[in-house]
Every structure is written in C-alpha cells, then in structure tokens.
Design a protein that fits this description.
Blueprint (H helix, E strand, L loop, with lengths): L3 E4 L4 E4 L14 E3 L5 E3 L2 H43 L4 E6 L2 E6 H44 L3 E2 L4
Antiparallel strand pairs: 1-2, 2-7, 3-4, 5-6
Helix pairs in contact: 1-2
C-alpha cells in the first residue's frame, strides 16, 4: 500500500493503491496496482525515470535554442536582403553595442559568415533533438512496459 509520486510540469510517475496513500516512499519500495499485482520500483527503474526527466528538460531547452537560432537566421536573411537594396557604399554595421561605418562588401561577407555559423548550429541542435526524442521513446517503452497505466510520461 504505497504511493510514489513524482510531479513536474513535464511528467508524472504515480503508483497507487486502494487505500489512503502515504506522502512519498523510497523508490525501492513495492506498490500494488488496482489489479492487485505487485510491482517493485527498482533502482534501475528510478534511474530510467530520472533520465527521462533530464532528457525532457533538455528537449525543452533545445526547443528554445532552436527557436532562437531560427529567428537569428531569419534576421540575418532580412539584413542580407536589405543590404542588397541599399545604394550606399558604406553602411552602418552593429559590432557589439556600437554601430560602425563599414564597406558594403565587408558587411555582406560578415553576414554570410554569420548565416553559415547559425545554420550549422541549427543543424547540430536539430540532430541533438532527434537523438533525445529517440532515447525518450526507448525509455517510454521500457517504463510503460513495466508500469503500464501507473506511470504518465506524457506532457500535461
């Protein structure tokens, strides 16, 4: 007769019984499902749950980083397009917090270099995200296989 509960905005893990639950027990205690069968939460299970939580947090961080990289890429593309439309030989280019007058050709080169760096970073972030999603799918399969409906690994 136990309740093991781990709640976060990203996942929850609940094993409950038919009687009043206790606040929190160690992850190595056993718990009964509504069917009456007994399932032990082993150290390995707890490690998998913790790893899933860390991966889920990293996934959300990656989503934010990818969004920022895409916005940066779009801004660089817009700047490149605006530069094409200008007739001036010297343009104002922001370096840090200061605007400097820089030849148009040099600014075009710098923007192209910045776009390449941002595109490579975006590609790397997408690859990391795909890897994390695949690993999370494996952990879901393992955890749902053992705990069935007693565990919720889906976003709320």
């Amino acid at each position: 007769m136990a309740l093991i509960s781990r709640r976060s905005p990203f996942y929850s893990f609940n094993i409950s019984t038919r009687t009043h639950p206790q606040p929190q027990l160690s992850s190595l205690s056993s718990a009964k499902y509504a069917t009456g069968s007994e399932t032990e939460v082993t150290w390995e299970d707890q490690q998998n749950i913790n790893k899933f939580g860390r991966l889920n947090n990293r996934l959300h961080e990656l989503d934010d980083e990818i969004k920022l990289a895409k916005e940066t890429n779009e801004n660089l593309e817009d700047a490149s397009n605006e530069l094409i439309l200008t007739d001036e030989d010297m343009v104002r280019f922001q370096i840090g917090e200061v605007f400097a007058h820089v030849p148009k050709e040099e600014v075009e080169d710098r923007i192209e270099q910045m776009k390449e760096v941002t595109s490579k970073k975006l590609e790397k972030l997408e690859e990391e995200k795909d890897s994390i999603v695949a690993h999370m799918a494996e952990l879901k399969k393992i955890l749902y296989g053992k705990f069935k409906d007693s565990i919720n690994l889906e976003e709320d």
